[in-house]
Specification:
The chain has 27 helices and 18 strands. It is α+β, with helices and mostly antiparallel strands. The chain folds into four domains: about 90 residues, DNA Primase, Chain A (Alpha-Beta Complex), CATH 3.90.580; about 130 residues, Alpha-Beta Complex (DNA primase DNAg catalytic core, N-terminal domain); about 190 residues, Dna Topoisomerase Vi A Subunit, Chain: A, domain 2; about 180 residues. Helix 3 packs across helix 4, helix 16 packs antiparallel against helix 17 and helix 20 crosses helix 24. The longest helix has 30 residues.
């Protein structure tokens, strides 16, 4: 376990805007920062970061918390993993208590896969640099490709010895378990149960997660045998889903944000060569067709993608349909072609950094206009084929969610296609109407009705909702005002937090997170501590963090102009703290008493004996007196 003193140092050093800014493009808005949600597909920013409070709140998905919570939600880190990531970022040495054998056995499955992948990357990298075979075969290949020593080290390039069990034997010897070696795809199990190396005799390209941990590998053979696949990649696993990963994104994310553009290439070598040339905002889909998840990864950082193609016209045409997905996600797409026989890797080595940049600047074309020109060349004067091309182009434009942008493309394409703009607009509207109709219906043609609109037991749900809301209000007041002194008529020289806890010692909370919060708060008060919101924002229990952030975060900030310019006064709960605090306490108590009276009434109706009825009636009358007392108190203190 990480020592409390170390956790405190990590929290003090963490700048939540800086941390989240590595994953989400943030823009300052007032005292806060906003951006598009990384957890939901949205067009309008609803993701807010408050540097003053050290929290984020995503109003699309409902997620919220500290920088630690963000990493846990986005990267699926455990609490210790998130702390270690932050510690590494801020160069803080992590002090932990001594791990026992039991603690090692309890290491979660995901972390075990991460650990074995990290070990493999180290093994392959050392094999490349420190063995005769690695130097002669792997290192010489990378040097021929023009990769410098610094680049090889940065991308952790490696070599897997051309032996059946070089890696697997060493890994087993060092205590790594078979199940994680096979699940990660590093080792393959024979029919007799023994293991062998998947990547033997290949140069290795580690694939990193967004946060920089090795999660998979691509292995390239250097043999000319056509029966041997050129590339062997890691299989899907708990830590690696190829449709959600872009090669090089960990190294490119900072530059993508700064340049506000992402270069998309095809292979590992393209990324590495272009990056080495100082053009670092480059990633690859690693041989797979581009997916929506990959596009959204880029969309977190920029709305501009530039596709860098080689000169293969057939490959370009085949990929055109897939690029419509980028438009559908609201991103801007440009296309750059290289001369025949060249890809980004070979071309940047041929012309250098400045020549490469100049070629991109001189040859980049908007995807829609490029597609229009390319397809028109093929149809010639055939009117049927031309009509098919026009429909294809309009389909692409229909994917663009921004109506103004779509209208601009219609105008441009009208000129290129030599067809009336109104005809294109008419076709565009037909397509959009058809899509809207399709999205609003189920497969059977009936309108979709959310199940939530028809609860099975509405009175019970409403009752729970009211209880939950009142209990959450108590939590909110403790967070905001618990450490403030009371200075009311008849009550003084005490803090609001302990006062509220004492007043509520006879109330049983029902909402799980609120109940847990009150228990923690009460224990801290007993120990002479008044816990503030930061104590709970950084609490290990995710449910408590979610509750706290939801209560203290707000999507909107009230402008001072409401009074300064318009002389409009808004209510301030701090103006009468006595009414605010006592109102919350006694409204909750009144609600609880009301529920108890309802239960007693039901029991009275079902009472069998006179004795039971007398006992219940006595209890009922006593609770009615309590209700009257609370009601009178609310009337005299809160209303007046």
């Amino acid at each position: 376990m990480i020592l409390k003193s170390t956790i405190d140092r990590i929290m003090e050093a963490t700048d939540i805007v800086e941390v989240i800014g590595e994953f989400v493009q943030l823009k300052k808005r007032g005292a806060n920062y906003v951006g598009l949600s990384p957890f939901a597909n949205e067009r309008t920013p609803s993701f807010t970061v408050s540097p003053a409070k050290g929290i984020f709140k995503d109003f699309s998905s409902g997620k919220g918390g500290s920088a630690v919570t963000f990493l846990m939600e986005l990267e699926k880190f455990t609490y210790p993993e998130a702390l270690k990531w932050l510690a590494k970022k801020y160069s803080i040495e992590v002090e932990e208590t001594v791990e026992t054998a039991e603690n090692k056995e309890e290491e979660n499955r995901r972390e075990s896969l991460m650990i074995v992948s990290s070990y493999a990357a180290k093994f392959f990298h050392e094999s490349l640099l420190d063995t005769d075979e690695g130097k002669a075969i792997g290192l010489s290949y990378f040097k021929e490709r023009g990769f410098s020593s610094d680049t090889i080290k940065k991308f952790e390039l490696g070599y897997s010895p051309d032996q059946w069990e070089a890696f697997t034997g060493q890994a087993l010897k060092e205590g790594y378990l078979e199940e994680f070696l096979t699940e990660s795809g590093l080792s393959v199990k024979r029919d007799n149960g023994s293991l062998y190396d998947r990547y033997r005799g290949r140069v290795m390209f580690p694939i990193h997660s967004f946060t920089g941990r090795v999660i998979a590998f691509g292995g390239r053979t250097l043999k000319s045998d056509k029966n041997v696949p050129k590339y062997v990649n890691s299989p899907e696993s708990e830590i690696y889903h190829k449709s959600s990963v872009l090669y090089g994104l960990h190294f490119a994310k900072k530059s993508i944000r700064e340049e506000d553009n992402c270069y998309l290439v095809e292979g590992y070598a393209d990324v590495i060569s272009v990056h080495q040339a100082g053009i670092e905002n480059v990633v690859a889909s690693s041989g797979t067709s581009l997916t929506v998840d990959q596009i959204r990864l880029i969309g977190r950082l920029t709305k501009n993608i530039t596709i860098l193609y080689d000169g293969d016209a057939a490959g370009i045409k085949a990929s055109l349909r897939g690029l419509d997905m980028i438009l559908e996600e609201g991103l801007n797409v440009k296309v750059v072609l290289f001369p025949d026989g060249h890809d980004p890797d070979s071309y940047v080595r041929l012309v250098g950094t400045n020549g490469f940049k100049k070629h991109i600047e001189d040859n980049k074309k908007d995807f829609i206009l490029y597609k229009t020109t390319l397809l028109l060349k093929e149809v010639g004067n055939d009117p049927i084929k031309k009509s098919e091309v026009i429909r294809d182009i309009v389909e692409s434009i229909a994917k663009i969610p921004d109506s103004i942008k779509a209208s601009v493309f219609i105008k441009e394409c009208s000129s290129i296609l030599q067809i009336d703009e109104r005809a294109l607009l008419s076709e565009l509207n037909k397509m959009r109407q058809a899509k809207a109709k399709k999205n609003s219906q189920q497969p059977n043609g009936r309108m979709v009705t959310p199940v939530e609109e028809y609860p099975l037991d509405e009175p019970i749900q409403e009752e729970r909702k009211e209880t939950s809301s009142q209990e959450k209000e108590i939590v909110r007041l403790l967070l905001l005002y618990g450490n403030k002194m009371i200075d009311w008529d008849g009550i003084a020289n005490t803090y609001i937090g302990p006062f509220m806890i004492a007043e509520l010692n006879d109330v049983e909370f029902e909402h799980p997170a609120s109940k847990a919060f009150i228990e923690i708060y009460s224990k801290e008060v007993e120990n002479g501590v008044l816990p503030e919101e930061q104590h709970f924002i950084h609490y290990p229990d995710k449910d408590i963090v979610d509750l706290v952030v939801t209560l203290i975060a707000t999507k909107y900030t009230l402008s001072e102009n409401w009074y300064e310019m318009h002389k409009i006064l808004t209510s301030d709960e701090q103006a009468n703290m006595k009414a605010t605090i006592l109102g919350a306490i006694f409204h909750l108590k009144m609600h609880k008493v009301g529920k108890m009276l309802d239960n007693l009434r039901k029991e009275l109706q079902n009472a069998v004996t006179d004795e039971d009825q007398d006992i219940l009636l006595t209890q009922y009358m006593r609770m009615k007196k309590v209700e009257k007392t609370i009601s009178d108190y609310l009337g005299s203190v809160i209303i007046k």
